[in-house]
Design the sequence.
């Protein structure tokens, strides 16, 4: 587990299992900014153990899109996000728009080139 100073809530805002990985987003409750998200990627190992990595939401989006097969070179600085209170989280940039909601629904709209 990598320590980045995030205080994880017990319940993730968003969670999705893909093959041997679990992608989750939490909101940091320890910051002044009420809805500051961060990502957690857990890799499931043998014997029901897992390796958990806490990362920025920008890096989380890059890895999720790569997992879905995106070949684009997406830079962390090219990703912005907005939070609709605790209901929706939208990421946008040259890659398009990725919308997540608290019910773990995902909508990805790629940018046409």
Sequence:
């Amino acid at each position: 587990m990598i320590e980045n100073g995030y205080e994880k809530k017990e319940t993730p805002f968003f969670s999705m299992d893909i093959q041997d990985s679990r992608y989750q987003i939490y909101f940091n409750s320890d910051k002044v900014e009420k809805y500051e998200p961060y990502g957690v990627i857990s890799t499931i190992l043998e014997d029901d153990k897992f390796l958990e990595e806490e990362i920025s939401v920008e890096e989380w989006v890059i890895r999720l899109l790569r997992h879905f097969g995106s070949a684009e070179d997406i830079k962390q600085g090219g990703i912005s996000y907005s939070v609709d209170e605790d209901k929706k989280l939208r990421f946008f940039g040259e890659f398009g728009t990725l919308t997540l909601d608290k019910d773990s629904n995902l909508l990805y709209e790629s940018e046409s080139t």
